[in-house]
Amino acid sequence: MSSDDRTRLAALLEAVHPLHAQAMSDAEQRQAQLTKPAGALGVLEPVSVRLAGVQGTCPPRPLTSPAVAVFAADHGVHAQGVTPWPQEVTAAMVENFRAGGAAVNVLARQAGAEVYVVDVGVAGEVSPDDRVWVRKVRAGTADLSVGPAMSEDEALVTLLAGADVARELVERGHDCLLTGDMGIANTTASAALVAAFTGAPVGEVTGHGTGVDDATWRRKVEVVAAAVAALGGAPDGPAADPVEVLAAVGGLEHAALAGFVLGAAAARVPVVLDGMIAGAAALVAHALAPSVVDHWFAGHRSVEPGHAVTLAHLGLRPLVDLDLRLGEGTGAVLALPVVQAAGAVLREMATFDSAGVARK
Amino acid sequence: MSSDDRTRLAALLEAVHPLHAQAMSDAEQRQAQLTKPAGALGVLEPVSVRLAGVQGTCPPRPLTSPAVAVFAADHGVHAQGVTPWPQEVTAAMVENFRAGGAAVNVLARQAGAEVYVVDVGVAGEVSPDDRVWVRKVRAGTADLSVGPAMSEDEALVTLLAGADVARELVERGHDCLLTGDMGIANTTASAALVAAFTGAPVGEVTGHGTGVDDATWRRKVEVVAAAVAALGGAPDGPAADPVEVLAAVGGLEHAALAGFVLGAAAARVPVVLDGMIAGAAALVAHALAPSVVDHWFAGHRSVEPGHAVTLAHLGLRPLVDLDLRLGEGTGAVLALPVVQAAGAVLREMATFDSAGVARK
Description:
Two copies of one chain form a homodimer.
Chain A: H1 3-14, H2 21-33, H3 44-55, E1 66-73, H4 88-99, H5 103-111, E2 114-121, E3 132-134, H6 152-171, E4 176-182, H7 186-198, H8 202-205, H9 214-231, H10 242-249, H11 252-266, E5 271-273, H12 276-288, E6 296-298, H13 305-314, H14 330-348, H15 352-355
Parallel strand pairs in A: 1-2, 1-4, 2-3, 4-5, 5-6
């Protein structure tokens, strides 16, 4: 790794501050005065407190300009037959995102979120425009089953590119960042990251992705298990430096997403995570700077079994649980209204005193 | 019961048609062509199919003008000390709804839904306006622990008033109806209805409501158990005619809500149910016209234990599960974006053919 990039990484991690204690305390006190039984709004209450802590103000500001960044990349492990989908689908889906026809576009329009696509490693050619950013580090990873997916330098550069995307979106005025992803075979790399960072057995964190049959699933487990074993290290934790693990078995979108969710936290902007791919990337970021997890909301729980393991490891409760397994950011976008609603409760609800309602 | 009201009830039940089979089949076929792996949008897919079936068209029309009706009433069983909250809070909360300061107002503004309040039995005086409708049948129920909560005539008249509210809201252009409720002590009446209609043990369906202590909870269970036992009948099913059960142990808001969710179905307008109180009322409607349940979406799962029993009995999966236990319609309003998003998927997503994306 170049010493300049190492310095930039250190500065990024240093910029992840703890949540704002006074804002959180104010939010808790305000919740107790609102016209409802204590705790009756369930998870909305801690979500509102966390939002105040991330923004450093109570009540939290409304999230009026959310943006989802869909990081797209290809995977050399595709050659091992871990998915029935052709690799070309990654680039074709980038065009579908550009045209506004993919699921994440539809759900983002419903939720009032902007969609950006960031090519950090699509194998095919992608043309840039205002909403499709080309930050390609390499045209897809190498096959993680025969060697490292990328060099540590590439992993670090891609991570920093993801952090830059977060910074640039915040500079454009976006006040809530949602993670998205696209990359045929990316659940394979995700399973490897989850196994490496959580220590969970490979068979328990490897899923059926876009819908592979049992024979393909067994092949996928073998590939992931061999890659994770090659990392060495203790069975109950990461084998080595997080960037080394990321380079060995991750994807370019994982690297960028890890930087993205660190960069958002450094800018004190809340993050809504999507599912399995985002979770795997979040494990990398969490290993680098454990307190970063406090700045995030888990949008949903994916059907992919590794995702529940990931959420438990990170201590995050999903806001939506609807058997999604699509990625793209769909679960994050579906959860966005819940986060917005939690903040609105603190800003807009009457108190017992203001409304003249008797307490028990 | 007057024969005229009996005739109106029969006409209402007759107007609940089955879902539109062709629209549902069209929706299923369209789901299979959209640019995503089959099933990858999880629960959004059957929600979209149901929405097409309720509206009788595919793709379903957007839900651009949702409305939540908060039915408010008081409960004679309050005299038994089943809650620490004073009865006057019901009327005070009606004024909080009118002023826009309650949780349901805040969440409805976030979701773009209008809030109407319908007084069907508040003990205090309520002034009508364009959004606060006074359809009071009596000023609160009698104490269900010493006799029927209301007469069967009153139950039927209130049920028909709820159906009228649904019809009037649809005539105003509202295209999705959400249930709301307010009434101190209404979880007691709800638990009695749930036990009566599902046959579940009273101790398993009676919860801590707005947060009662253990002694109050035990008192609540005794009261509910005695009322349910007085109904007679088999332990695994309703004791008698649904309207008779409703009159014996229900609340005026339960009666109105039962009519409301039947009236919406008769108008082919989708319903999003809130939690425990809505669920108890839904059991009445379901007992009267079993197919009505197909027109509903379960907004959320309440912490109240009787609600999970209710959802299982009705065969509904909650769209949101965030430990809410407030009522008012808050869980329904939080779930509304999920229903809207499901419909948008069918209207707006590209197909594999239109987007030029290869299939596996």
